[in-house]
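Recap from last week: sequence in, structure out.
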Amino acid sequence: MDPCPFVRVTVGNLALKIPVASKPARSVVHPSSSPCFCKIKLNILNLPPQNAVVPCLPPDTQTLDNPATAATFHLSKSDLDRLTSKSIFASRLCLKISIYTGRRGTTCGVNSGRLLGRVSVPLDLAGTESKPSVFQNGWVSVGKGPNKGGSAAQTQFHLNVKAEPDPRFVFQFDGEPECSPQVFQIRGNIRQPVFTCKFSFRASADRTQRSRSLQSEQGSSRSWLSSFGSERERPGKERKGWSITVHDLSGSPVAAASMVTPFVASPGSDRVSRSNPGSWLILRPGDNTWKPWGRLEAWRERGGADGLGYRFELIPDTSGAGIVLAESTISLNKGGKFVLDLGSGSSNRLGPNSPGCSPRGSGDFGYGLWPYSMYRGFVMSAKVEGEGRCSKPAVEVSVQHVNCTEDAAAFVALAAAVDLSMDACRLFSQRLRKELCQQSDLVG
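Predicted structure tokens:
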């Protein structure tokens, strides 16, 4: 499989040195008490701006001890072609950073932070799909000269801006997952079939969800599916038993996603709540059986705009607790991206608005998580459509995380589970398409 060229632009090593005014003044920023943040944007690409906290350092600081990544932008081959072609865009790409003091947020539509200054870093991305390039690394002056408080020194802002190759495998479902589609690998204008998917309903007695080619052993008849998912069988509104198996072109099963906890409407409502989510196991073949690789929980968020809330965790081979890698939301109306990105700086916090997340409560990533320290930087993304729209998930997987066909297939199965969760979390007052309903549901 040949990957597609991508480029990752990262901004990090942020810091501020604000001179101390010789005269006290109310308008002067006091680093010890005033939080600072910045907004980071690429000027001519349709990518959302990113926010990051900027630590303030004493004016006499000589060394910087803040290597964290603050923002990451991912550029596809089409983005690169547009920027490097002979057009009006070729010489205009730059990174714009606006630095503020005060707390983030808005009041009555007005930003609550006070602007300290702006920094612009020109970017020339020609050739960066094959070799890294550093555009800025060091201190720059911001603001309009001496502070009103009497200091002649200017505020100093430290940053590192670089671009690095980030090749990815790109996959596209040829239909909705519940319709058992083919999955194509995309490279430019080339579409090559690599997987087939089979959607089915898991019978209540078939809790181990084994494939015909994965023979069960006499001593391993225990159902580990039930140990990860709640086998609740409640009367009332529920969606359960969905399963999708990914096969390679020879017909061998190479990954699967199995709904192990039904999606159940909360008492007195028509929705799956965060307090009682449904869940999937993402499975990989091994030792003549299926082995759990990851667990996806999903629910319907409340709020001004309904969203699909999700949490994804890796499952260790041992009996240890799962390692949470992502917790975020996707718009149920517009759709969006499910993202595993362990290097997006300010987005590396578990929260409802972060696109990618760091592990929680397990020590520093890369040290306390063996053998999962191999998951670094961008891992994968899956783009899905909103409710009621035809969704053919597009999946991107970093080359560094694919060593075999089963690796790629596991991410494809995870993308299918995310897309199917959009349907599983639909209000129970709405009927699902026939492919998602068992015969008893259609009769009822």
